[in-house]
Each structure stands twice: as structure tokens, then as C-alpha cells.
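Our consortium's second objective concerns turning raw sequence data into structural hypotheses that experimental partners can test. To show how far this objective has progressed, the report includes one record in full. It was chosen at random from the queue rather than selected for favorable results. The single chain below, 125 residues long, was entered without modification.
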Amino acid sequence: MKLAIDKNKLSGQAEQFLRQAGYGFIVDRQSGQESFVRRLSRDHYPRLHMYVKEVGEKVEFNLHLDQKKASYPGAHAHSAEYNGAVVEEEIERLKGLISHNTQHITHNSKHETPKEKSFFKKLFG
């Protein structure tokens, strides 16, 4: 399942957002492809698996649920779900985090930091 958002809705890089959302960075040993995973238990599987791609001014998150590792050596195919309750709930959780992130950015930009008074202004007002 894909989720595309504007880059300006994130306070930093997409990778930083995913780490804050509980995802860990991984690199596939065979293909060298970079992605992120979030474990659903202490075991390696099942896990949420996320690919990130920047397209212009948008960031595209591509999420699926890995049920188990590939069954036999040399195989890349595995049991993955691209839709379903777990994937949909995770997309909604990420949307909520993005919304909270956007509100935080807006809130911080509205409040300017007061300028510090000079030494003489502090003494004499």
C-alpha cells in the first residue's frame, strides 16, 4: 500500500521520520536495496517493510507486511501482504504521526523567539 505526502510535511528527512516512527534501516545483502522494517514481535517475522522513494516534491512510502522469510535458498519471493488490516492500520498510524508533525512545525513557526536584550537595556530598561 502506498502513501504519498509533500516533503514539507516532514520536519526532516523521510528516513528520520521513519526512525522516529519505530522503523529500522536495512540493506538487502543480495540486491543492495535499502529499506526500513518495523518488527511486530521479538522475532524477525512478521514485520512491516517499507520502501521510500522521493518523486519531485513528494515522498512516496510503499508498505507491505512480510509474513515470513523466503522459503528456500536463492528465492526472493516471500509471503507478503500489500493490503489488509495490519497494513491499513499502520498507514493510518503514519498519517497521524505526519499530521502531528505538521502541527508541530506550524506551531513552532508561529512563535518567534524573543530577541535578547542588550547589556545596557537589561541594566537601564
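The partners drew two points from this record. The CA atoms of residues 24 and 64 lie 15 Å apart. The chain has one domain: 2-106. Both points have been shared with the crystallography group to help prioritize constructs.
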